[in-house]
Amino acid sequence: MGDKITQYPAVGIQLSAGLSALGNTAEQIRQALTTQQNTLSLRSGFIPEKQVWVGAYQQPLIETVPAFLQDVDSRNLRFALTALSSIESEIRDYTAQFDRKRLAIILGTSTSGIADNEILLKQYFNHHSKIEINHYKQEMGSLAKGLQMYLGWEGPAYTISTACSSSAKAMAAGQRLINAGLADAVLVGGVDTLCRLTLNGFYSLESLSNDLCQPCGAQRDGINIGEAAGLFLLSKETAPVMLMSAGESMDAWHISAPHPEGKGAAEAMQKALDMAGISASEIGYLNMHGTATPQNDAMEIKAVQTVFQQYEVPISSSKHKTGHCLGAAGAIEAVICQQVLADQSWLPLHHSGSIDPELDEANYVLNAQLQQPIEYVMSNSFAFGGSNISLIFGTKLK
């Protein structure tokens, strides 16, 4: 952590949209995160003979896509296009000033369109070999390429898939692309949709909660899976909320477990602070990765204590409201952080259950009312294999 960190200029969040179990408007997001209302759903059909709590988006998605997108059509793409539709006209107006070759798209996902092929794949492997399966819709790259085709842009377009850090890394990559002079505006974010593959995968790892998840809770027993779409248009132009910095690290400690002392997590947070040129005491709120798994929560609290020392930064996890949205987690939590800074009146509540006595020496947000204006917030995303990233958003340039 002693290496010199380059301070890249902040980039402006010109437009944004977010869809999740919280809803799809700023007011719905605020209402869901500042009250004790349950936003998760108990669903069957994902795991055989078992109901599970999931963070499902409750509103309808667009029903049709243009004919030229048929090869990449999936619920994942429709989720992205539904989010895009709320800001599409503004995006087209804003980007009209730029050459199409200077407009880029970088998105994160971990599921892509696999849900659309799950039933067909099951039939195929049950010896129905004549079934035709369009694999392109489930390829990771199809998400960014599909949006590029839809918007008619001609700059770089690619998808990042690093599990739960995917969309946060997409935002960091967008900032770098702009600062490298390779793009004038970048559409970044992430989309992941509910599917049997991920739910059964985490179930096999014994990582799914039997109830609503409780990050850092005394009785925490795992995660709830969610789905979300979060999109942001970034450019060099100043905006009310800026993406200040991103700190990244790699534990390479274990394929599915974080470093127990949170070394990689602490490194990511410190790098983000150094890149933004701010001190830990200037962070007004920290959105935890906060998965509600025993190891992850314990290491994250250790990492927070390492970086913030005696400063009791207000912290909370929003995953008991959204579910763990995997490749879209960083994006939807960035939407939350942006809204906190824009409204300057509330913070997301931590869950109301009892806290693990070994983790209770932290400043959990138990009162949603923001006591004083804040200028910077941090959001953590930590993934399998130790792929860590911390983003800092701010209202004030250094």
Describe the structure.
With 398 residues, this protein is α/β, with parallel strands linked by helices. Helices cover 30% and strands 21% of the residues. It has helices spanning 26-33, 75-85, 88-95, 114-125, 142-151, 166-179, 196-204, 263-276, 294-308, 319-322, 329-343, and strands at residues 11-19, 41-47, 50-55, 103-108, 157-160, 185-192, 225-226, 228-235, 242-250, 283-287, 314-316, 363-364, 376-383, 387-394. Strands 5-4-6-8-1-9-14-13-10-11-12 form an 11-stranded mixed beta sheet, sandwiched between helices. Helix 8 packs across helix 9. The model has no long low-confidence stretch (mean pLDDT 94).
Short description:
This protein is an alpha/beta fold and 398 residues long. Helices cover 30% and strands 21% of the residues.
Q: How is the biggest beta sheet arranged?
A: 11 strands, mixed
Kindly, what is the distance between the CA atoms of the first and last residues, rounded to a whole number of angstroms?
22 Å
> What does the average pLDDT come to?
94
Task: Note the overall shape.
Answer: globular
Which range does the strand content fall in? Answer: 15-25%
Low-confidence stretches: none
Number of helices: 11
Q: Considering DSSP H and I runs of 4 or more, what fraction of the residues is helical?
A: 25-40%
Instruction: Tell me the number of strands.
Output: 14
* Strands ordered across the widest β-sheet: 5-4-6-8-1-9-14-13-10-11-12
**What is the CA-based Rg, rounded?**
20 Å
Order of helices and strands: EHEEHHEHHEHEHEEEHEHEHHEEE
Structural class: alpha/beta
